[in-house]
Amino acid sequence: MQKILIPLKQHVGVPCEPIVEVGDKVLRGQLIAKPAGLGANVHSSLTGEVVEISNGNIVIQPDEVQNLNEFVKIPETSSHVEAIDAAGIVGAGGAGFPTAIKIACDIPNGVFIANGAECEALLSHNVKQMNEHVEQLLRGMEYCMEITNAPKGVLAVKGKHKALVAHLKTILEDIPNIDVFELPDIYPAGDERMIVREVMNIILEPGQLPFEVGAVVDNTETIKRIAEAIELRKPFIDKDVTVSGRVKQKSTVFVNVPVGIPVGSLIQDVGGYVEPHGEIVLGGPMTGSAGTENSPVTKTTGGVLVAMPFPQEKRKVGILICECGGSDERMTHIAEAMGGEVVAREMCKRMVEVNGRYRCAMPGVCPGQAQTVLALKKEGAQVVLTGTCSD
Ligand code: SF4
């Protein structure tokens, strides 16, 4: 069996500190690293032996025989928040913020929102979860509403999933404090601030957090992991992943993949590549990053997407940056992989600086970019590579 590589940092914050040593035998579900600051517990996803601890990873040689139905349970806790903390749950939609910190707030007049937007193209594991395990999701939402004191819950889904929306509405007829909200089919409908605007009709300032206006937003898979931690005492050791793009069996959803396994094994499981193929993208096509076959599945890996080979581009490239799209770093990587030279960078005019980071003032209400494109041209760009979601 291939080694698994469990990163010490799968969350917003600082890397965890290992509490195991090389040579230790570990069990599936065993705690192997603890936060050293902002972070979340890390557990082994398989039973085996620690063979290396280096470069921010714990490497485990799994035993040949595994029982994925069994795991070391998290200890008994006196509250649901403590269970979420012990289970090492972080935002599974990609953000990776430690959930126990995010959810420990009081919104007695507010709303808990389950984010089922699954906004990036090709990803489909959240929709599969909502189609097949809605009861567990609703139980998870009720735990979250209890923790936050939110009297109301909303399950936010794109309206284009007509059959799913109809199914959810039927089920929710008997649950008066949870509603379905139909999101528009645009990117970035899954952005927290955009969801709050759509659901509550409140515009958050850049940098303002949803709880400041009485909202907590969590991805549907995060809520699944919360339900598992509370009901099964299960740590966050498995991840749902969509594999798609230039692979033989497109749009395959793997449910409960052990964290740490190399993404190449998932590509093999769907029959391998369709040739010619380009890079492996970890995450969604908009905000994902380049990986390799050896990159591990982490708590925030939603997609393993195999791209086309890059077209070649010899002209001078201008990069147009959006908060919700490809970052400057990602687009520079793409431009250089195409053989282009980056000569200019501009941001969408809605980007504003908050605490040293650029944020979008109005996600999803996107302006035309003619002005920005002209600025790039002035700076010498002959073509524009855009990470914005508008034209
Ligand atoms: S307004 Fe600009 S920065 Fe904001 S989401 Fe749209 S394109 Fe991106």
Question: How many extended strands?
Answer: 21
CATH class of the largest domain: Alpha Beta
By CATH, the architecture of the largest domain is named: 3-Layer(aba) Sandwich
CATH names the topology of the largest domain as: Rossmann fold
- Range of strand content: 25-35%
How many structural units, i.e. domains? Answer: 4
Task: Give the strand order of the largest sheet, numbering strands 1, 2, ... along the chain.
Answer: 13-12-16-14-15
Q: How widely separated are the two ends?
A: 47 Å
Radius of gyration: 21 Å
- The global form is globular
How would you classify the helix and strand content by structural class? alpha/beta
Distinct compounds present: iron/sulfur cluster
Mind telling me the CATH superfamily name of the largest domain? NADH-ubiquinone oxidoreductase 51kDa subunit
Q: Average pLDDT across residues?
A: 94
Briefly characterize the structure.
About 25% of the residues lie in helices and about 25% in strands. It is an alpha/beta fold. Iron/sulfur cluster binds near residues 351, 364, 389 and 390.
List strands and helices in order, with pairings.
Blueprint lengths: L3 E4 L9 E2 L6 E2 L4 E4 L7 E2 L4 E7 L2 E6 L17 H7 L12 H5 L7 E6 L8 H8 L1 H15 L3 E7 L3 H11 L5 E6 L8 H9 L14 E5 H13 L5 E8 L6 E7 L4 H7 L10 E3 L6 E3 L11 E4 L9 E6 L6 H10 L3 E7 L3 E4 L2 E4 L9 H9 L4 E4 L5
Parallel strand pairs: 8-9, 8-11, 9-10, 12-16, 17-18, 17-21
Antiparallel strand pairs: 1-7, 2-4, 3-6, 4-5, 6-7, 12-13, 14-15, 14-16, 19-20
The structure holds iron/sulfur cluster.
The site of iron/sulfur cluster has 15 residues, from loops.
